[in-house]
């Protein structure tokens, strides 16, 4: 699990400057290690369109042995036979969902020690902690927690794989790794750029450097 979380690209059609299939294809070439289909927000696809795009993105991931995770939508995750699902605190009872999805990857958003402890207890495979920094991508985030939140979780013996998320880019990812995260999850640092391949390549290089000089 930990090695997949290094550069975890999260995206939906709403976030992309160009064709989402092209964006993901380039991001995979650039070196992302895991992908989450998060079709959400104003103008997001629904129903058949959402399913069809999901299938295209999933096949890109399968061809490249990249775990394909669906955000929030359990029915879609099961219909696509995705590798896993990511849910927020408001997306339902984690232990119920664990029974529903069996051995698939279960990611849970956590904003503090109590949510992280709960997620571990109910069988999450990793937690997404944030927002690390200001973000314009998700409008209803909690207040900025910062990398120190990850450091605090590790100091309280939270051993589960952790990915930081929220406003992360090449310039500010090192403190997230140094705080004890196994990787970073991000949207606009790849999806909003003309050259997603170059963006992903620069990011994974900086992430690997951060681990080497930890
Ligand atoms: C999904 C999510 N959860 C917390 S912040 C966020 C948005 C991250 O987007 P960006 O990487 O563009 O800041
Ligand atoms: C809200 C989120 C937090 N963390 C991750 C990895 N994905 C999300 N959608
Ligand atoms: Mg959610």
TrEMBL record:
Swiss-Prot/TrEMBL cofactor(s): Mg(2+)
Domain Thiamine phosphate synthase/TenI: residue ranges: 7-190
Residues annotated as binding 2-[(2R,5Z)-2-carboxy-4-methylthiazol-5(2H)-ylidene]ethyl phosphate: 135-137, 167, 187-188
Catalytic activity from the UniProt record: 2-(2-carboxy-4-methylthiazol-5-yl)ethyl phosphate + 4-amino-2-methyl-5-(diphosphooxymethyl)pyrimidine + 2 H(+) = thiamine phosphate + CO2 + diphosphate; 2-[(2R,5Z)-2-carboxy-4-methylthiazol-5(2H)-ylidene]ethyl phosphate + 4-amino-2-methyl-5-(diphosphooxymethyl)pyrimidine + 2 H(+) = thiamine phosphate + CO2 + diphosphate; 4-methyl-5-(2-phosphooxyethyl)-thiazole + 4-amino-2-methyl-5-(diphosphooxymethyl)pyrimidine + H(+) = thiamine phosphate + diphosphate
UniProt-listed CDD domains: TMP_TenI (cd00564)
The EC number(s) this enzyme carries: 2.5.1.3
Gene Ontology biological process terms in this record: thiamine biosynthetic process; thiamine diphosphate biosynthetic process
UniProt xrefs under NCBIfam families: thiE
Pfam family for this entry, one: TMP-TENI
Binding-site residues, Mg(2+): 72, 91
UniProt pathway annotation: Cofactor biosynthesis; thiamine diphosphate biosynthesis; thiamine phosphate from 4-amino-2-methyl-5-diphosphomethylpyrimidine and 4-methyl-5-(2-phosphoethyl)-thiazole: step 1/1
Keywords: Magnesium, Metal-binding, Thiamine biosynthesis, Transferase
UniProt record similarity statement: Belongs to the thiamine-phosphate synthase family.
Leading EC class: transferase
Name of the gene encoding the protein in the UniProt record: thiE
GO annotation, cellular component aspect: cytoplasm
Cofactor note: Binds 1 Mg(2+) ion per subunit.
Name by which UniProt lists this protein: Thiamine-phosphate synthase
GO molecular function, one term: magnesium ion binding
């Amino acid at each position: 699990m930990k090695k997949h979380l290094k550069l975890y690209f999260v995206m939906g059609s709403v976030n992309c400057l160009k064709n989402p299939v092209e964006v993901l294809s380039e991001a995979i070439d650039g070196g992302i290690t895991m992908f989450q289909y998060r079709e959400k927000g104003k103008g997001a696809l629904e129903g058949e369109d959402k399913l069809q795009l999901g299938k295209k993105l999933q096949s890109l991931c399968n061809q490249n042995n990249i775990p394909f995770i669906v955000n929030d939508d359990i029915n879609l995750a099961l219909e696509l036979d995705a590798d896993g699902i990511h849910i927020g605190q408001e997306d339902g009872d984690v232990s119920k969902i664990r029974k529903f999805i069996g051995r698939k990857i279960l990611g849970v958003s956590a904003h503090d020690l109590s949510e992280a402890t709960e997620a571990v207890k109910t069988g999450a495979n990793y937690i997404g902690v944030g927002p690390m920094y200001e973000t314009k991508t998700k409008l209803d985030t909690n207040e900025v927690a910062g990398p120190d939140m990850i450091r605090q979780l590790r100091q309280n013996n939270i051993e589960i794989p952790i990915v930081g998320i929220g406003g992360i880019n090449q310039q500010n990812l090192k403190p997230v790794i140094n705080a004890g995260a196994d990787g970073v999850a991000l949207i606009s640092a790849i999806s909003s750029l003309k050259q997603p391949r170059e963006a992903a390549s620069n990011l994974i290089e900086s992430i690997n450097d951060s681990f080497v000089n930890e």
